[in-house]
Amino acid sequence: MKANLILILFAVLAGAVLPIQAGLNVQLGKSVHQPVFAAFASFLIGSIGLLIYLVIIKFDFGSVVQVREVSPTVWLAGILGAFYVAAVIVLAPKLGTALTFSLVVTGQMIISLVLDHYGLLSLPVQEINWQRLIGVVLLTAGVLMIRGFN
């Protein structure tokens, strides 16, 4: 139970930093008049940070050759991440962070249900049930409520 609580708190923290990241990236994009540059800079600095982390934990860079065995489609993850960051930088100043992220979470939940239900991308199967559907409906209702107050 304690391990689950730590994971839950970690997930909440991960979600909490996204609007902060978006706000900082929006500021950077405005300063150079190019939101895509802000996304690029975000990924560049993030990559440097991850490289430093890998060095600190003494990651075996020799094991990287194993990536030759993975499907080329897994590399789309980087493009999807770049799209996400760039989209949030463009959307947050126009929609506000609350509406932007409530829409992002709604999209995440809908696709997550499909991925889980069919076990796509080698994820474990967790079939769609009425509780999960109600959860998405409530999230969507939350988006509509947030939009109504904008």
Name the overall outline: globular
Task: Please give the number of β-strands.
Answer: 0
* Terminus-to-terminus distance: 39 Å
Sheet with the most strands, sense and barrel status: none
Low-confidence stretches: none
Counted up, domains total 2
Q: How confident is the prediction overall: mean pLDDT? A: 90
SSE run? HHHHH
- Write down the Rg: 18 Å
In DSSP terms, counting alpha (H) and pi (I) runs of 4 or more, how many helices? 5
Residues in helix, %: over 70%
- What percentage of amino acids are in beta strands? under 5%
Q: What structural class do helix, strand and pairing data support?
A: mainly alpha
Write structural notes for this entry:
The protein has 150 residues and is mainly α. It has two domains: 1-95, no CATH class; 96-150. It is built from five helices and no strands. It has helices at 2-32, 35-56, 76-95, 97-118, 130-148. Helix 1 (2-32) packs across helix 3. The longest helix has 31 residues, at 2-32. The chain is globular, with a radius of gyration of 18 Å. It starts with a helix and ends with a helix. The model has no long low-confidence stretch (mean pLDDT 90).
